[in-house]
Amino acid sequence: MGETICFVVKTKDRVGMALDILKILYRHSINLKAMEVAPGLAFLKIEKAEGLSYDLLKEQLLQEKDVLEVEKIKMMPQEKKEREIKAVLDATVEGIIAIDKNGIITAFNPAAEKILKIKAKEAIGRPVAEILAPDIPMLKTLRTGESYDNVEIVLNNQKTKSHYITSGRPILDQDGSPVGVVASLQDIENVMELVYSFAQPAVITFEEILGESEKMRRVKEIAKIAAKGNSTVLIRGESGTGKELFARSIHMASPRKNRPFVAVNCAAIPDTLLESELFGYEEGAFTGAKKGGKQGLFKYADKGTLFLDEIGELSTYLQVKLLRVLQEGKIRLVGGNEEIPVDVRIIAATNRDLEKLMKEGQFREDLYYRLNVIPIFIPPLRERKEDIPILARHLIKKLSQKVGKRINDISSEAMKKLMEYDWPGNVRELSNVVERAINLCDDEVIGVEHLVLKEEELSDSLYVRKPCGKTPCKNLKEAVEEAEKRAILEALSKSKSIREAAKLLGVTHATVLNKMKRYGIKKETYWSEEMVK
């Protein structure tokens, strides 16, 4: 192949101009390699002819009627456009595949090579059905002309083993018929990282787990050691002891800290829904299944940690599926056939007696031993009461900001009352008691009168008389309503207007009017009686 020259001929826009230029090339036996024409422009790529210089050819062209200018160019417009497109395709982090109307691959960028583990030279010019699979969405789009978005694909064949998310668009001719398809691919790992970067959980570390008692120090030491490895952890403890706090702290102290932490409450989700949430499902796996299927939490937590709270509530059917994941490190989507490898560390937690459940046949023994590699027992609050002052003061500081009050401390009498209580609800109950006390406190120090440790004490704390004899006790809602009504009546008796009463109560004028209407307090009747007095 000889040397080529590219140039552009600028002309007046008239019929037959391109033909006149071609006649000149033919006259000098010039081999035309390519030509692109636009109004007033003719781009030519020719093979350099012996005995005819470019300058001479230029002179010949300029002598032609209506030729205005002849100028050399480095490359043809189409070549320039193709190189620009290739540069874009090479630079993008998404895989790009294009096919023509026959399903033959025409474009296959480096990112697609990386995701699919197939070289472009092996793919371009070959049927996409042969290179990937005969049922990929691109081929459906080629038939129907319909676009698709974010379809999850798992390929496991002789050519490739890959897992990616893909979207596709048809290439349409002037009549709107598909003559090709372009698809983008994103590796599932990159998608998961992007999702996680926008949905990172609250960062909890061991420093945020308060408690200086010997039992708590020992538990934290064990948990810190467990965090360094990759073994399954089983956290045991009563409700409200902070099992999830420990799970999050273990994750944040582990090599997986920069990967997802996914928490699932096994008791809060029905079995049928929990299975699809954990393992994901294929499109059409069941009635109501999301188009394109759904990514499961196991896959979302890949390379990270999956926290299974209330593991004792898991059905025996799901126990078998969980055991399989722990044994083989693979999951299978609901309605799917492919097994997908996952690298997930399991931290489980329960307040149930798993040993008793095993004897009753409600919990699998093999799963128990798989989970119980590193057992961690969190002591109840009643067994580490020396931690109560630290916890209480921390909660006062934290919850005062939430409620919007300036509470600085707690009296010694109030602290004594907290220390003498058994805390069946553990730290969660302590948090509720402190928040309730902050709401009831009008001073900067919480007193013993602000502490309501049991619901039946609420009436006394709000200065509501308790019923006598065999009359049943009021429930919490009734007690609060009675206290609210008494407070409104007292404020009205000390005021000359609704607005003044509202100011005394620390609420809006509209709030007092609504409460008066709710409790049947009539403004006219009330104040007319006061005036008589």
TrEMBL record:
Keywords: Aromatic hydrocarbons catabolism, ATP-binding, DNA-binding, Nucleotide-binding, Transcription, Transcription regulation. It holds the Pfam family AAA_lid_14. Residues 81-135 form the PAS domain. This is HTH-type transcriptional regulatory protein TyrR. InterPro entries: AAA+_ATPase, AAA_lid_NorR, ACT_dom, Homeodomain-like_sf, HTH_TyrR, P-loop_NTPase, PAS, PAS-like_dom_sf. Gene3D superfamilies: 1.10.8.60, 3.30.70.260, Homeodomain-like, P-loop containing nucleotide triphosphate hydrolases, PAS domain. Residues 209-439 form the Sigma-54 factor interaction domain. Residues 6-75 form the ACT domain. One of its GO terms (biological process) is regulation of DNA-templated transcription. PROSITE patterns: ACT (PS51671), PAS (PS50112), SIGMA54_INTERACT_1 (PS00675), SIGMA54_INTERACT_2 (PS00676), SIGMA54_INTERACT_3 (PS00688), SIGMA54_INTERACT_4 (PS50045). GO terms for molecular function: ATP binding; DNA binding.
